[in-house]
Amino acid sequence: MAHTTKDRKKLLLRVRRIQGQVESLERALSEDHECFEILQLVAACRGALNGLMAELVEGHVRFHVLDPNNGKNSEQAAAAEELIEIVRTYLK
Fold first, then answer.
1. What is the pLDDT of residues 58-88, one digit of tens each?
2. Which CATH number does the domain housing residue 81 bear?
3. For every residue of the chain, which 3-state class applies, written as one string?
4. Range(s) of the domain holding residue 49
5. Total number of domains constituting the chain
C-alpha cells in the first residue's frame, strides 16, 4: 500500500484547508483588499503547499526509498533522516 493511500484522509484534509486558503485569496482579490493582506494570504498558501510537499516527500523517502530490511539505526536510515530534515528546512 502506498503512503498516499495509507494517509489519504490526512492528506485530503490538508488539501481542503489549502483550498479554503486559496478561496480566501480569490475573495480578497475580487473584493479589492489591500496589497499587504493579499501578500499575507499568498504567503499562507505557499506555506501550506510547502508543508504538504514536505509531508509527501517524507512519505516517499520512508516508503519507497528506504530498504525495509535495514534497521532504523542503519546508515541508510540516518541519511534518509538527514534528507527529510533538509527538505523540511528548505520548504519552511
1. 999 988 888 888 878 889 989 999 999 999 9
2. 1.20.58.1000
3. CCHHHHCHHHHHHHHHHHHHHHHHHHHHHHCCCCHHHHHHHHHHHHHHHHHHHHHHHHHHHHHHHCCCCCCCCCHHHHHHHHHHHHHHHHCC
4. 3-90
5. 1
